[in-house]
Amino acid sequence: MNFSQIARPLCLTSLLLASPAAFAGPSPQGEWRVADGTATIRVHRCGAAFCGNIATTITPAGKDIHNPDPRKRNRTVLGIEVLYALRATGPNAWSGYSYNAQDGQTYTITVSLASATTLRVQGCVPGGGACGGETWTRAR
Question: Which branch of life, at top level (predicted)?
């Protein structure tokens, strides 16, 4: 058996066993400043998807008073998960859900990397409600 007969199966096996992250392109991971500058959201991997939590606020963090679950209305907004189940839908694009602590609503969203330093977030109220969007800038 020569080297190429041994090396080819080893290379193919290595490719098959490599983690999916090895093939991943750009991702939304990082810390992003929301459009009005009042908070940053830390986007991270959560299983096969991405999630995001409120990392910082420029004023003392308020309470989640608009949450539809009365048991959660006294919790601080700092650290709560506001983006979840973001899954790739194409190059530099993901879709999932966003919880907005300012109105207690959950939105379906699409997130796309407009550049290495800008993240476009667009959302709609499920069921055909109002839609809107904003651009976040990379904080870290």
Answer: Bacteria
